[in-house]
Fold this protein.
Amino acid sequence: MQLSFNERQQDLYGQFSELGRPVALSAPENDKVCRLDTENWQKISHAGIWRLPVPTRLGGAGGSWLDCVAAIEGVASTAEDLGFMITMLGHVGALRILLYEGTPEQQQRWLDRLMSGEIGITAMTEDTGGSDLARMRVAAREDEAGWRLSGRKSHITNAPVAAFGMIAGRIPSLGDKRDIALFFVDLDTPGVSLGRSEDNLGIRTSPTADLILDGVPLRLNNIIGTPGDGLRILCDIISFERALYGVIASGLIEGMIKKAMARVESRWAFNRPLADYQYVQGRITDMKIAATVCRFATYAAFGKIESKTEDASIACSIAKFLAGEHLLASAEHLVQLHGHLGFMNNDLSRQLRDAVGMRIAGGTSDIQRINIFNQLRRLNKKPVASPLAVAAE
Ligand SMILES: Cc1cc2nc3c(=O)[nH]c(=O)nc-3n(C[C@H](O)[C@H](O)[C@H](O)COP(=O)(O)OP(=O)(O)OC[C@H]3O[C@@H](n4cnc5c(N)ncnc54)[C@H](O)[C@@H]3O)c2cc1C
């Protein structure tokens, strides 16, 4: 398990934290109009962030996923914009699927475009509910003209600005038990359209919309992995994304701490700076503990994903749970430490609005608890090797 950066990752963290700074400047305006900062998205993409985990033979930098995570953490540490980070999450999910499950033909068709900054989606949620994914109804059926995909995905990050991406659905003809499949689709294909761009409480710099699929023609290379094996692939992607939330929360909280420190050193009450008061100090130490815990939870979870340990899914849910809870608590401290200034409609309160969405996107905090318990139960039921049998070997 790697809990600290190597030299290359330290450099990447530094390089991408510089590139995150301008995102913070544009976030207030983008928040007002629900707009992604596409200019800085392109700059960060062109700096090679999406190439980091991709082998050189596929046009990448030949690094590791941890390189990419260090770069994402760098952006989070200065961007002050959870929406921008959530857009990165949706994109990186599509990248990981294509890298691990795509055929050479699929990689040739989409990988370079993803690495160059064309935006991807990972679409799972439907109006049947995001928590209970097994109820999804988007389905591919064959008629005389060939295979067609129909249905509707809800609240999909990047949908209004994306070029393509992964859509989870079913192939009912495979039978009830293993009919989930993942489709990779260009969003300019006939039959694909968008619902209205959503007017959300927070994370507004990452546009979301429904994706409407009306008889979208499919070819064999639109299916990722073995048809019917979609749930297994989804589990990997969902786990990876859950783990990532930890460093995103950590980076954003570190930014909040800087703001909070500046405030409490400069604001005086009762003849002393706020920083002299223990209750005030307690809020900031809680924020620092939160940032540290979230960060280590991510790297611990990645260690388990990489080594394929059987409790990896628990570690990923813990990272997501901690990220959601701690980001919200830290954003509230930030607002509270600024008194009425924090309560005004500004950058401080925007971070609190954004943080509310962190507990919902990517699976709610309650769903993380459920997964942690279910996984514990599963592991607990596994037969333990008898000491006598081990001694006899
Ligand atoms: C900013 C943002 C971006 C998003 N981007 C994407 C995206 O790119 N792709 C995508 O596929 N989805 C996306 N989503 C959707 C997100 O994944 C879902 O909103 C989330 O999984 C919850 O699903 P739901 O909204 O349908 O709530 P529901 O599933 O209806 O849940 C409602 C409430 O009931 C609780 N609940 C449900 N079941 C149980 C249970 N068994 N026990 C206890 N409590 C339970 C939940 O915790 C929640 O509090 C995004 C959401 C947000 C907020």
In short: The chain has a mean pLDDT of 95.
